[in-house]
Amino acid sequence: MSALLEALAANVPESPLYDPDRFAAIAANYRIIVPWSGGLDSTTAVDLAFEETQGENIVLFSTTSGQPWDAGERRARHFIKRDVFPMLQSLEHVEAVLPSATTTYGHVQVGRNIQIINAAANKLGPPLWGEVWLGWLHGETHIADSDKSLAVVDRLTRQTARIHLPLRHHTKADLVAHWIERGLVERAAQLYSCFVGGPTPCGRCQACFRFYVGFAWHDAEHHLSWLPKADFSKHITKYRDVMVNHPHRYTPRRIRQTLHACNRWEAQ
Questions:
Q1: Which strands form 30-35's sheet, in the order they lie side by side?
Q2: At CB < 8 A and 24+ separation, what contacts does 155-159 make?
Q3: pLDDT digits (tens, 9 = 90+) for 127-146
Q4: Can you tell me the mean pLDDT for 16-30?
Q5: Are 207 and 197 a contacting pair, CB within 8 Å?
Q6: Distance between CA 28 and CA 115 in Å, rounded?
Q7: How far apart are the first and last CA of the chain?
Q8: What is the pLDDT of residues 180-236, one digit of tens each?
Q9: CB of 59 within 8 A of CB of 150?
């Protein structure tokens, strides 16, 4: 069912209930809900929300769904809140259990994104007015920042929340630049973007490779403490083939950044 809902969400009609004046009248209930895994994408989204609101009315929303990486992500989140970005401890943090996936594709749980949106809006209960900030990067979805995105949540949950993608024009390298500009790149290097679920990043999965790409673009991969054990050979072979022979699958910026990282890896 979740996969069907995700397909329907792409073409949901605009909500006939949209009334800016009515929503403004309940602004006291406004929340920014940020699904937070402890990784680079979602933590950057949290930081942007924090900068915009000075930490007011932000809710971290974490999920588990019986996947192998759940325990590793939970341990990583605890470490990040305590030792890396203590300011996160000041934010309300909600944890929710999603239904276990009946279908997975590698690390991808089919329908997980729409389940997270649904659970995030429903968990806080009515009356909810605000936004669900998703840490999705450039090209990952077009359903955002419009009355249509509000209608998606309204149709699924009967809650009033707009989907917002603060990173929709960003690549991994742009996220690393965010932390470099704030003098916090060493802390950002301790974030947990890994599909394996161990106590530290594995240095071999696709998530670790994409994390590496973001740092390598800025010649800053030396901040990654787990890099000495990393092995990205299979990813480099795959990306070189796909990006050279099928460049239409990626943006020119992502191709440049990925191939730059491949070159740096091979030159080390």
A1: 92-97, 58-64, 30-35, 129-133, 160-164
A2: 155/9, 155/12, 155/15, 156/5, 156/9, 156/114, 156/117, 156/118, 156/121, 157/118, 157/121, 157/122, 158/126, 159/121, 159/122, 159/124, 159/126, 159/128
A3: 566 788 989 888 666 655 66
A4: 59
A5: no
A6: 26
A7: 47
A8: 999 999 999 999 988 887 778 999 999 999 999 999 999 999 999 999 999 999 999
A9: no
Q: Which amino acid is at 105?
A: Y
Question: What is the identity of the amino acid at 213?
Answer: V
69 or 18, greater pLDDT = 69
DSSP the chain: -HHHHHHHHTTPPPPTT--HHHHHHTGGGEEEEEE--SSHHHHHHHHHHHHHHTTTTEEEEEEE-S-TTHHHHHHHHHHIIIII-GGGGGSEEEEEEPPPPS-EETTEETTHHHHHHHHHHHHH-SS-EEEEE----TTS-S--SSHHHHHHHHHHHS-EEEEE-TTTT--HHHHHHHHHHTT-HHHHTTS---SS-SSS--SSSHHHHHHHHHHHTTT-GGG-TTGGG---HHHHHHHHHHHHH-GGGS-HHHHHHHHHHHHHHHH-
- 221-249: string of b/e by CB count within 10 Å (b at 16+)? bebbebbeebebeebbeebeeebeeeeee
Among 111-115, 197-201, 239-243, the range of highest mean pLDDT = 239-243
Q: How many residues does the chain have?
A: 268
